[in-house]
Design brief:
With about 300 residues, the protein is mainly alpha-helical. It is about 85% helix and about 0% strand. It is built from 14 helices and no strands. α6 packs across α8. It is globular.
């Protein structure tokens, strides 16, 4: 009876994790729809609001989840605060480029960047951590590199947006992986560290060019305030999913986001040439090779763990 109860609880946890993961990546996938509604607003103002409104909303989440002790402990550590300050600067740059990409009709390039991101992690492991790749991983990285070359030399479009987004998010991921802190406390500290700079910038920007916020358009003001929940909610859902799902499952779910962005890019009428098709086809093939290898490695590790010592 007890074993059945534990099994049912385990199934419920996995089911909740799967729901949270799908919603997290789904929300990231439709983020361009929200940003298109703000296309008349300067990207730097949007990022400023995204930082500022994430702080009070993040504080509510921390209170609800009772994570203030973990957050304040991290704040008291100079090393933790310094590294989170660096990761905050990197993710702010990533946000700014992404907002600009959507406003400038480069959603397809943005989606390509997040498709490349898992393979960029592998490449970073080789060059930074001196890790060795197996044959499947080498094949996946080579296919991705070939896809970028096809787009660059065939269509004459160097996908710098894709590469910078992938590189910056990889750098952010590696820094956050080094730190023993939860997703929500980490994001709160990052936005808290950035918030004074965001506030000073918005004050300066209001005097230099004028803000879209506070001009009597209640709908626009509400959308800009919504930047806080739009930033925090997917991360919270992701944190809930990460605690309940296997890493390999999360690896498959992460493709929901760029896939949503890809179809939105087509919906908004962005150019999609045969070279784009070949490039994306090679990237998708690379991801299939990479994912299948990850599943195989995961199964091998689980089988080894079950072997008697």
């Amino acid at each position: 009876m007890s074993d059945r109860k534990d099994h049912n609880q385990g199934d419920s946890a996995v089911r909740l994790g799967l729901i949270c993961g799908v919603f997290a990546y789904g929300l990231w996938g439709i983020l361009p729809v929200y940003l298109k509604a703000l296309v008349a607003v300067d990207p730097m103002e949007i990022v400023g609001h995204r930082i500022l409104w994430s702080v009070p909303f993040g504080a509510l989440i921390l209170t609800f989840r009772k994570q203030w002790r973990e957050t304040l402990k991290a704040f008291a550590s100079p090393r933790m605060t310094t590294l989170l300050g660096f990761s905050a600067a990197v993710i702010a740059g990533n946000w700014l480029l992404y907002v600009w990409a959507v406003a400038s009709e480069h959603i397809l390039q943005a989606s390509l960047g997040y498709y490349i991101n898992p393979l960029m992690f592998v490449a970073a492991g080789v060059f930074v951590l001196k890790e060795k790749l197996n044959r499947a991983q080498i094949t996946a990285v080579a296919l991705a590199a070939l896809g970028v070359c096809v787009l660059t030399f065939g269509a004459g479009v160097f996908p710098w947006v894709s590469l910078v987004l992938a590189l910056s998010f990889t750098a952010y991921g590696y820094v956050r992986k080094m730190l023993d802190i939860g997703g929500m406390p980490g994001l709160f500290i990052e936005t808290a560290l950035l918030s004074p700079f965001a506030l000073v910038f918005l004050i300066w920007f209001s005097q230099a060019q004028g803000l879209a916020f506070g001009q009597g358009d209640i709908g626009m003001d509400a959308l800009l305030i919504l930047a806080g929940p739009v930033t925090v909610v997917p991360l919270l859902l992701f944190a809930l999913a990460a605690r309940r799902l296997r890493f390999s499952t999360l690896g498959f779910l992460q493709y929901i986001g760029p896939t949503g962005q890809f179809f939105l890019g087509l919906y908004y009428g962005e150019p999609f040439t045969p070279y784009h098709a070949v490039c994306f086809g090679l990237i998708w093939t690379a991801l299939a090779v990479f994912s299948l290898d990850a599943v195989r490695q995961n199964r091998k590790m689980r089988a080894a763990a079950r072997q008697p010592v």
